[in-house]
């Protein structure tokens, strides 16, 4: 299953702040990180996700991740959250 199929129709948190919060409070089931996003942002979420035992999947670009999340702009990261 591709990441865009995995994201479709799911409860999401998009962007750095929302994704980080979802991981911190334990509602994130899986995190998606764009490879071309600023490493200063992405390294923190990758470390946090590993610490919280949340799977991290890399996506080629912010543009692709944003499109897969159903938004018109790029996204550095997104999380699938448990309802």
TrEMBL record:
Superkingdom of the source species: Bacteria
Ranges of residues in domain Ribosomal protein eL8/eL30/eS12/Gadd45: 8-82
One GO term describing the cellular component: ribosome
InterPro entries: Ribosomal_eL30-like_sf, Ribosomal_eL8/eL30/eS12/Gad45
Pfam families associated with the record: Ribosomal_L7Ae
Keywords: Ribonucleoprotein, Ribosomal protein
Gene3D superfamilies the UniProt entry points to: 3.30.1330.30
UniProt name for this protein: 50S ribosomal protein L7ae-like protein
Organism from which the protein derives: Paenibacillus antri
